[in-house]
């Protein structure tokens, strides 16, 4: 279910209607802010005319995700072959690359060649947290679409209206979700359902929130350290266990 981003829905509908879609986009922004869900919904819109994910199969889209922690050059070559074919139902053959920060150097170079000379009727969407994880030559050729965090009020309203969460619970979950709808849904689904494994990013965010509530001025240096760690975890493919030990050691020495 796509929540929010109404302005982007209208913008992409208009681009399709007027035939003004770019050939390559970068969807970027914090994790769990709707980038991938928007891409899926857009894929359904291109083939079926409805800006929402349905159970109907798609034939003019190919999804590319990491294998063993990376996206290699062979995956990009497969995308090129797919994009070179004529679309059957959609106006474009669409390739969606999730976690684009995991593209290897060779894969990024291969992707650059596709973007520089795109096959007719092709469309590429890369999804990443931070634009700077991509090589400048590739980044410069992508139309960039930013997905911001939700406000607490927006999150709480979405939880109440779309998921029937009681208002008080919705406000509490929104406060703990750092503006991320995906995180908010994980929190409400963890109550009475299967609990998802907590990631190192979750731990960092909880530490940041705890220090912030105890006083940003008093804990300024620790907050700066944790925020820097958080950025690096999202930007690079790091060993979470080693990062966790480093954070605990740093904070215990304070």
UniProtKB/TrEMBL annotation:
SUPFAM superfamilies: P-loop containing nucleoside triphosphate hydrolases. One of its GO terms (biological process) is DNA-templated DNA replication. It comes from the Bacteria. Pfam families: DNA_pol3_delta2 (PF13177). This is DNA polymerase III subunit delta.
